[in-house]
Amino acid sequence: MSNEYRIFGTEMSPYSVKMRSYFRYKNIPHKWLQRFQHEEEYQKLTRLPLIPLVVAPDGKTLQDTTPVIEKMELVFPEPSVHPEDPTLAFLSALVEEYGDEWGMKLMFHHRWVSKADKLAGSHILAREILPYGESAEIDELAEKILERMAGRLILVGSNAETAPLLSNYLNRLLEILEPHLENRLYLFGDRPAFADFGLGLQVYEMALDPTAGSLIRAVMPNILQWAYRMTSPRNDGPFEDWPSLQPTLEPLLSDVGTYFLPWSTANAEAIIAEEDNFSVELNGETYTQSSQRYHARSLEKLRDRYAAAADNSALNQILADTGCLAYLH
Which residues, other chains included, contact 96 with Cβ-Cβ below 8 Å and sequence gap of 6+? Predict the structure, then answer.
Protein backbone atom coordinates (compact mmCIF):
# COMPACT_ATOMS: atom_id res chain seq x y z
CA MET A 1 0.00 0.00 0.00
CA SER A 2 1.28 3.46 -0.91
CA ASN A 3 2.08 5.82 1.98
CA GLU A 4 0.88 8.78 -0.06
CA TYR A 5 -2.03 10.98 0.98
CA ARG A 6 -4.20 12.70 -1.59
CA ILE A 7 -5.57 16.23 -1.20
CA PHE A 8 -8.49 17.29 -3.37
CA GLY A 9 -8.70 21.08 -3.42
CA THR A 10 -8.45 24.27 -5.46
CA GLU A 11 -6.04 27.18 -5.52
CA MET A 12 -8.93 29.55 -4.79
CA SER A 13 -9.80 27.84 -1.49
CA PRO A 14 -7.90 29.12 1.57
CA TYR A 15 -8.67 25.90 3.40
CA SER A 16 -7.31 23.80 0.54
CA VAL A 17 -4.02 25.67 0.39
CA LYS A 18 -3.90 25.62 4.21
CA MET A 19 -4.02 21.84 4.13
CA ARG A 20 -1.40 21.63 1.40
CA SER A 21 0.85 24.05 3.29
CA TYR A 22 0.71 21.84 6.38
CA PHE A 23 1.55 18.69 4.41
CA ARG A 24 4.47 20.46 2.76
CA TYR A 25 5.78 21.71 6.10
CA LYS A 26 5.64 18.24 7.60
CA ASN A 27 7.12 16.68 4.47
CA ILE A 28 4.22 14.22 4.41
CA PRO A 29 4.05 12.28 1.12
CA HIS A 30 1.03 13.61 -0.72
CA LYS A 31 -0.46 14.36 -4.11
CA TRP A 32 -2.31 17.60 -4.80
CA LEU A 33 -5.36 16.95 -6.97
CA GLN A 34 -7.23 19.84 -8.53
CA ARG A 35 -10.76 18.98 -7.43
CA PHE A 36 -12.52 20.00 -10.66
CA GLN A 37 -10.16 17.90 -12.78
CA HIS A 38 -10.94 14.85 -10.63
CA GLU A 39 -14.63 15.53 -10.03
CA GLU A 40 -15.90 11.99 -10.49
CA GLU A 41 -13.43 10.54 -8.00
CA TYR A 42 -14.04 13.41 -5.58
CA GLN A 43 -17.80 12.83 -5.64
CA LYS A 44 -17.34 9.13 -4.95
CA LEU A 45 -15.11 9.77 -1.94
CA THR A 46 -16.51 12.85 -0.25
CA ARG A 47 -18.97 12.70 2.63
CA LEU A 48 -19.66 16.44 2.56
CA PRO A 49 -19.56 18.84 -0.41
CA LEU A 50 -16.52 20.59 1.04
CA ILE A 51 -12.88 21.04 0.15
CA PRO A 52 -10.26 20.12 0.91
CA LEU A 53 -10.84 16.41 1.00
CA VAL A 54 -7.90 14.39 2.33
CA VAL A 55 -7.70 10.70 1.48
CA ALA A 56 -5.34 8.69 3.69
CA PRO A 57 -3.19 5.84 2.35
CA ASP A 58 -5.68 3.33 3.81
CA GLY A 59 -8.54 4.99 1.91
CA LYS A 60 -10.11 6.77 4.88
CA THR A 61 -11.33 10.28 4.12
CA LEU A 62 -10.75 13.35 6.27
CA GLN A 63 -12.42 16.76 6.10
CA ASP A 64 -12.35 20.00 8.12
CA THR A 65 -8.80 21.31 8.26
CA THR A 66 -8.47 22.06 11.98
CA PRO A 67 -9.28 18.54 13.25
CA VAL A 68 -7.38 17.03 10.31
CA ILE A 69 -4.23 18.88 11.36
CA GLU A 70 -4.75 17.79 14.97
CA LYS A 71 -5.03 14.16 13.84
CA MET A 72 -1.98 14.44 11.61
CA GLU A 73 0.05 15.89 14.50
CA LEU A 74 -0.38 12.57 16.30
CA VAL A 75 0.99 10.66 13.32
CA PHE A 76 3.67 13.19 12.30
CA PRO A 77 4.58 14.95 15.56
CA GLU A 78 7.80 16.64 14.43
CA PRO A 79 8.28 19.47 13.92
CA SER A 80 5.29 20.32 16.07
CA VAL A 81 3.06 23.23 15.11
CA HIS A 82 2.27 23.75 18.80
CA PRO A 83 4.72 25.68 21.01
CA GLU A 84 5.87 23.69 24.05
CA ASP A 85 4.79 26.52 26.33
CA PRO A 86 1.11 25.72 27.09
CA THR A 87 0.27 29.41 27.24
CA LEU A 88 1.57 30.02 23.74
CA ALA A 89 0.03 26.77 22.50
CA PHE A 90 -3.43 27.97 23.46
CA LEU A 91 -2.87 31.46 22.08
CA SER A 92 -1.76 29.92 18.80
CA ALA A 93 -4.91 27.78 18.68
CA LEU A 94 -6.99 30.87 19.42
CA VAL A 95 -5.46 32.76 16.51
CA GLU A 96 -5.90 29.71 14.27
CA GLU A 97 -9.62 29.77 15.02
CA TYR A 98 -9.71 33.53 14.44
CA GLY A 99 -8.07 33.04 11.06
CA ASP A 100 -10.37 30.22 10.00
CA GLU A 101 -13.58 32.01 10.95
CA TRP A 102 -12.95 35.78 11.04
CA GLY A 103 -10.20 35.88 8.44
CA MET A 104 -12.43 33.94 6.06
CA LYS A 105 -15.15 36.60 6.38
CA LEU A 106 -12.69 39.33 5.44
CA MET A 107 -11.28 37.36 2.52
CA PHE A 108 -14.64 36.30 1.12
CA HIS A 109 -16.17 39.77 1.37
CA HIS A 110 -13.30 41.48 -0.40
CA ARG A 111 -13.09 38.80 -3.10
CA TRP A 112 -16.76 38.92 -4.09
CA VAL A 113 -17.98 42.51 -3.63
CA SER A 114 -16.16 44.97 -5.88
CA LYS A 115 -16.42 44.71 -9.68
CA ALA A 116 -12.68 44.16 -10.22
CA ASP A 117 -12.46 41.44 -7.58
CA LYS A 118 -15.60 39.66 -8.77
CA LEU A 119 -14.41 39.71 -12.36
CA ALA A 120 -10.99 38.34 -11.44
CA GLY A 121 -12.23 35.73 -8.99
CA SER A 122 -15.01 34.38 -11.17
CA HIS A 123 -12.80 34.01 -14.24
CA ILE A 124 -9.91 32.43 -12.33
CA LEU A 125 -12.29 29.89 -10.82
CA ALA A 126 -14.00 29.30 -14.16
CA ARG A 127 -10.64 28.53 -15.76
CA GLU A 128 -9.85 26.09 -12.94
CA ILE A 129 -13.07 24.28 -13.74
CA LEU A 130 -12.68 24.49 -17.54
CA PRO A 131 -8.93 24.75 -18.17
CA TYR A 132 -9.40 24.15 -21.90
CA GLY A 133 -12.68 26.02 -22.29
CA GLU A 134 -13.39 28.54 -25.02
CA SER A 135 -13.69 32.20 -24.05
CA ALA A 136 -17.48 32.16 -24.38
CA GLU A 137 -17.70 29.08 -22.14
CA ILE A 138 -15.46 30.70 -19.55
CA ASP A 139 -17.53 33.90 -19.56
CA GLU A 140 -20.79 31.97 -19.19
CA LEU A 141 -19.45 29.90 -16.31
CA ALA A 142 -18.00 33.00 -14.64
CA GLU A 143 -21.47 34.58 -14.65
CA LYS A 144 -22.92 31.49 -12.95
CA ILE A 145 -20.14 31.58 -10.36
CA LEU A 146 -20.89 35.24 -9.66
CA GLU A 147 -24.56 34.46 -9.09
CA ARG A 148 -23.68 31.68 -6.67
CA MET A 149 -21.16 33.74 -4.74
CA ALA A 150 -23.51 36.72 -4.52
CA GLY A 151 -25.97 34.45 -2.74
CA ARG A 152 -23.30 33.34 -0.29
CA LEU A 153 -22.25 36.82 0.83
CA ILE A 154 -25.07 36.78 3.36
CA LEU A 155 -23.38 33.84 5.07
CA VAL A 156 -20.39 36.01 6.01
CA GLY A 157 -22.51 39.03 6.88
CA SER A 158 -21.51 41.02 3.82
CA ASN A 159 -24.02 43.66 2.73
CA ALA A 160 -24.18 47.38 2.02
CA GLU A 161 -24.34 48.25 5.73
CA THR A 162 -21.51 46.00 6.87
CA ALA A 163 -19.19 46.56 3.89
CA PRO A 164 -17.40 49.58 5.43
CA LEU A 165 -17.06 47.70 8.71
CA LEU A 166 -15.46 44.71 6.99
CA SER A 167 -13.04 47.02 5.19
CA ASN A 168 -12.10 48.63 8.49
CA TYR A 169 -11.64 45.22 10.11
CA LEU A 170 -9.23 44.19 7.36
CA ASN A 171 -7.27 47.43 7.52
CA ARG A 172 -6.95 47.06 11.28
CA LEU A 173 -5.73 43.47 10.97
CA LEU A 174 -3.11 44.37 8.37
CA GLU A 175 -1.88 47.32 10.43
CA ILE A 176 -1.41 44.94 13.37
CA LEU A 177 0.32 42.18 11.41
CA GLU A 178 2.82 44.32 9.50
CA PRO A 179 4.93 45.44 12.51
CA HIS A 180 4.57 42.05 14.18
CA LEU A 181 6.20 40.37 11.19
CA GLU A 182 9.01 42.92 10.97
CA ASN A 183 11.54 40.83 12.89
CA ARG A 184 10.21 37.27 12.66
CA LEU A 185 9.29 34.86 9.90
CA TYR A 186 6.05 33.58 11.42
CA LEU A 187 3.52 34.66 14.03
CA PHE A 188 5.18 32.90 16.98
CA GLY A 189 8.81 32.92 15.88
CA ASP A 190 10.91 31.44 13.11
CA ARG A 191 8.80 28.35 12.53
CA PRO A 192 5.09 28.16 11.69
CA ALA A 193 2.61 27.61 14.48
CA PHE A 194 -0.97 26.39 14.29
CA ALA A 195 -1.94 30.08 14.11
CA ASP A 196 0.00 30.64 10.89
CA PHE A 197 -1.89 27.92 9.06
CA GLY A 198 -5.25 29.36 10.12
CA LEU A 199 -4.56 33.02 9.36
CA GLY A 200 -1.67 32.97 6.91
CA LEU A 201 -3.44 31.23 4.06
CA GLN A 202 -6.51 33.48 4.36
CA VAL A 203 -4.14 36.42 3.94
CA TYR A 204 -2.41 34.63 1.06
CA GLU A 205 -5.73 34.41 -0.78
CA MET A 206 -6.34 38.11 -0.12
CA ALA A 207 -2.93 38.90 -1.57
CA LEU A 208 -4.01 37.29 -4.86
CA ASP A 209 -7.06 39.53 -5.27
CA PRO A 210 -7.09 43.02 -6.85
CA THR A 211 -8.36 45.12 -3.93
CA ALA A 212 -6.86 43.50 -0.84
CA GLY A 213 -3.82 42.37 -2.80
CA SER A 214 -2.99 45.84 -4.08
CA LEU A 215 -3.06 47.18 -0.52
CA ILE A 216 -0.83 44.40 0.78
CA ARG A 217 1.64 44.68 -2.09
CA ALA A 218 1.82 48.47 -1.87
CA VAL A 219 2.47 49.03 1.82
CA MET A 220 2.64 45.66 3.63
CA PRO A 221 5.88 43.96 2.51
CA ASN A 222 6.27 41.90 5.69
CA ILE A 223 2.75 40.52 5.35
CA LEU A 224 3.26 39.77 1.66
CA GLN A 225 6.44 37.80 2.31
CA TRP A 226 4.79 35.90 5.17
CA ALA A 227 1.74 35.04 3.06
CA TYR A 228 3.85 33.60 0.25
CA ARG A 229 6.19 31.94 2.75
CA MET A 230 3.18 30.11 4.16
CA THR A 231 2.56 28.33 0.86
CA SER A 232 5.61 26.18 1.59
CA PRO A 233 6.75 26.98 5.15
CA ARG A 234 9.95 25.79 6.81
CA ASN A 235 11.32 25.26 10.28
CA ASP A 236 13.93 28.03 10.36
CA GLY A 237 14.29 28.40 14.11
CA PRO A 238 12.53 28.17 17.47
CA PHE A 239 9.29 29.59 18.78
CA GLU A 240 9.80 32.76 20.80
CA ASP A 241 8.71 33.31 24.40
CA TRP A 242 5.86 35.56 25.52
CA PRO A 243 8.00 38.55 26.61
CA SER A 244 9.50 38.65 23.12
CA LEU A 245 6.15 38.29 21.36
CA GLN A 246 4.01 40.45 23.63
CA PRO A 247 4.64 43.97 22.26
CA THR A 248 3.28 43.18 18.80
CA LEU A 249 1.27 39.97 19.32
CA GLU A 250 -0.89 41.42 22.08
CA PRO A 251 -2.64 43.85 19.67
CA LEU A 252 -3.64 40.87 17.51
CA LEU A 253 -5.10 39.11 20.55
CA SER A 254 -6.94 42.32 21.42
CA ASP A 255 -8.45 42.25 17.93
CA VAL A 256 -9.62 38.72 18.67
CA GLY A 257 -11.20 39.90 21.92
CA THR A 258 -12.74 43.05 20.47
CA TYR A 259 -14.23 41.65 17.27
CA PHE A 260 -14.02 37.92 16.71
CA LEU A 261 -15.01 36.45 20.07
CA PRO A 262 -17.96 38.82 20.69
CA TRP A 263 -19.22 38.06 17.18
CA SER A 264 -18.74 34.31 17.62
CA THR A 265 -20.48 34.36 21.01
CA ALA A 266 -23.44 36.33 19.63
CA ASN A 267 -23.74 33.83 16.79
CA ALA A 268 -23.74 30.89 19.22
CA GLU A 269 -26.42 32.56 21.34
CA ALA A 270 -28.54 33.12 18.23
CA ILE A 271 -28.27 29.43 17.34
CA ILE A 272 -29.40 28.43 20.83
CA ALA A 273 -32.32 30.87 20.59
CA GLU A 274 -33.15 29.51 17.11
CA GLU A 275 -32.83 32.97 15.59
CA ASP A 276 -32.04 33.24 11.88
CA ASN A 277 -30.14 36.53 12.26
CA PHE A 278 -28.33 38.38 14.99
CA SER A 279 -26.81 41.77 15.70
CA VAL A 280 -23.83 42.45 17.92
CA GLU A 281 -22.01 45.59 19.03
CA LEU A 282 -18.37 45.36 18.00
CA ASN A 283 -16.29 48.21 19.36
CA GLY A 284 -19.32 50.51 19.37
CA GLU A 285 -20.61 49.58 15.91
CA THR A 286 -23.52 47.28 15.08
CA TYR A 287 -22.77 44.24 12.96
CA THR A 288 -25.65 42.12 11.64
CA GLN A 289 -25.60 38.78 9.84
CA SER A 290 -27.33 35.42 9.55
CA SER A 291 -26.54 32.87 12.25
CA GLN A 292 -24.27 29.95 11.32
CA ARG A 293 -24.28 26.55 13.03
CA TYR A 294 -20.73 25.61 12.08
CA HIS A 295 -19.31 28.71 13.76
CA ALA A 296 -21.21 27.83 16.93
CA ARG A 297 -19.72 24.33 16.94
CA SER A 298 -16.20 25.63 16.41
CA LEU A 299 -16.60 28.08 19.31
CA GLU A 300 -17.70 25.19 21.51
CA LYS A 301 -14.55 23.27 20.59
CA LEU A 302 -12.41 26.33 21.32
CA ARG A 303 -14.03 26.65 24.75
CA ASP A 304 -13.35 22.96 25.39
CA ARG A 305 -9.71 23.59 24.53
CA TYR A 306 -9.62 26.51 26.94
CA ALA A 307 -11.26 24.46 29.71
CA ALA A 308 -8.40 21.97 29.42
CA ALA A 309 -5.88 24.81 29.78
CA ALA A 310 -7.76 27.06 32.23
CA ASP A 311 -5.57 26.24 35.25
CA ASN A 312 -2.91 28.62 33.94
CA SER A 313 -2.62 32.01 35.60
CA ALA A 314 -0.25 33.41 32.96
CA LEU A 315 -2.64 32.48 30.16
CA ASN A 316 -5.65 33.83 32.02
CA GLN A 317 -3.92 37.15 32.59
CA ILE A 318 -3.12 37.54 28.90
CA LEU A 319 -6.67 36.60 27.93
CA ALA A 320 -8.11 39.05 30.46
CA ASP A 321 -5.82 41.87 29.33
CA THR A 322 -6.86 41.39 25.70
CA GLY A 323 -10.60 41.08 26.34
CA CYS A 324 -10.76 37.40 25.38
CA LEU A 325 -11.30 35.66 28.71
CA ALA A 326 -14.98 36.45 29.28
CA TYR A 327 -15.97 34.77 26.00
CA LEU A 328 -14.14 31.50 26.62
CA HIS A 329 -16.12 30.26 29.63
Answer: 66, 194, 195, 197, 198, 199
Interval 38-64: pLDDT, tens: 999 999 999 989 999 999 999 999 999
pTM: 0.97
> How many whole angstroms separate alpha carbon 253 and alpha carbon 178?
15
Domain membership of residue 22 (yes or no) is yes
In a shared domain, residues 246 and 294: yes
Q: Measure Cα distances from 6 to 22, 167, 291 in Å.
A: 13, 36, 33
What is the C-alpha to C-alpha distance for residues 53 and 116, in angstroms, rounded to an integer? 30
Asked if residue 80 is part of any domain, the answer here is no
**CA dihedral in degrees (103, 107, 110, 116; nearest 10)?**
160
Determine the 3-state secondary structure of 294 from DSSP: helix
**Residue 220 to residue 5: CA distance in whole angstroms:** 35
Give the range of the structural domain holding residue 152, as residue numbers without chain letter. Answer: 115-156
Q: pLDDT tens across 232-276, in order?
A: 999 999 999 999 999 999 999 999 999 999 999 999 999 999 999
For residues 220, 258, 183, 235, the Cα torsion angle rounded to the nearest 10 degrees is: -100
- pLDDT for position 2: 80
Based on the domain organization, do 193 and 167 belong to the same domain? Answer: yes
Would you say 23 and 70 are in contact if contact means Cβ atoms under 8 Å apart?
no
Domain count, the chain: 3
Q: β-strands 30-34, 5-9: how paired?
A: parallel
